[in-house]
Amino acid sequence: MPMNPSRTSANDDAAAGWPRVIAHADMDAFYASVEVLDNPELAGKPVIVGGNSMRGVVTSASYEARRFGVHSAMPTAQAKKLCPDAIFVGGRMSRYAEMSRAVRAVFEQFSPVIEPLSLDEAFLDLTGTQRLLGPPIEVARALKRRVREATGLTVSVGVAPIKMAAKILTDMSKPDGLLVLGPEHVLDFLHPLPVERLWGVGRVTLARLNEAGIRTIGDLARFDPARLRSRFGSFGAHLHELANGRDPRPVIGDWERKSYGEESTFEHDQALDSLELRRVLIAHGEALARRLRADGVRARTITLKLKLARPLGGGRYPLLTRSMSTDSATDDGAAITRIAIQLIERVKTPDKVRLAGVQVHNLERADTRQIRLFDPAALREAGRRSRLNRALDEVTRRFGEDAITRGLAHAERAAPTRRIK
User: Fold this and answer.
1) 345, 358, 209, 212: which is closest to 290 by C-alpha?
2) Model pLDDT, residue 150
3) In 3D, which of 235, 248, 23 has the Cα closest to residue 117?
4) Range 6-181: architecture per CATH
5) Residues designated as active site
6) What is the CATH number of domain 191-243?
């Protein structure tokens, strides 16, 4: 839909007097929008990207589906009840990553300092760009226009002098919106908002704030800082600063990814020794390895994540993790999978498994790895694996992620998250 001018700030003045100019850009229903872009027959229909099993999870939903109350992270079973006519799509992470790179290329036309939060969301530091690009509102309009021209997709943008306000503005402007907030209006904007709009205020913190009579950001701003610190420690002081419009956090342009993860929920609970559990771990290991190789990094630490099928109430289940570090970093799917399967032996429980995931950490650039120079067998094996992985990547690039896999790797997976952690 076209941008609604009523949701565009009328403040067209240049950024004179702004301490910083920060834009938050968030693609609208990104995964679902990419599916509609590639298959126009889906346009105007309720599209849900995610696992189609009864234990699947919604990764993205078109705005037609959201009108029924469907949202990301919702269980598939609930989404089907709310929107019986929804069209479910399994998800294509390689395609979303490709489109994300195209969006990032547009962002780089506007700022050299970009902090990605996920494939479809980022902060841009526009401070000092007004002499070249114009007032903040014109820059944001140009950014939205160029994203659409380059990708066919829409992006919502919020611009403010602090990160927190910019993100709230983006959320309020969706879909395909634009809101700009000058420094003089920050407190007037923030204080009437519900306190849960602040970063870090989840369900538990919200309940404790409400118990203290704090329901709006303004209530929090006026609350005694000493009492906040006694109730919440240093986090209380941090929230008080945010409520008063003080958010000094910079846009971190040289940020590096700390971990990669893939996980899925089983349609039926699995025993620790089940073939299906190993099948899913192989699929996750291969997916992680492709992402590592695409980004030119390797990982030294592999973590197995298991959610046990033992309800704790309130939709919660016990979560177990086991980790192992290696002497040399790897981007090989077979090596990642082998360690993940070995880690199952460290889990001692009679419970079955509801969810299984693999994460990799302790990353390093691929060009920094040192091969044992005086071990001819290691050199030959490294070369063989490298050639095999390059061949796998090329087949995947041309024909999709399911075109070729290692043995047992075909498994149902909930759409994995690629959020940066």
Assistant:
1) 358
2) 97
3) 23
4) 2-Layer Sandwich (3.30)
5) 121
6) 1.10.150.20
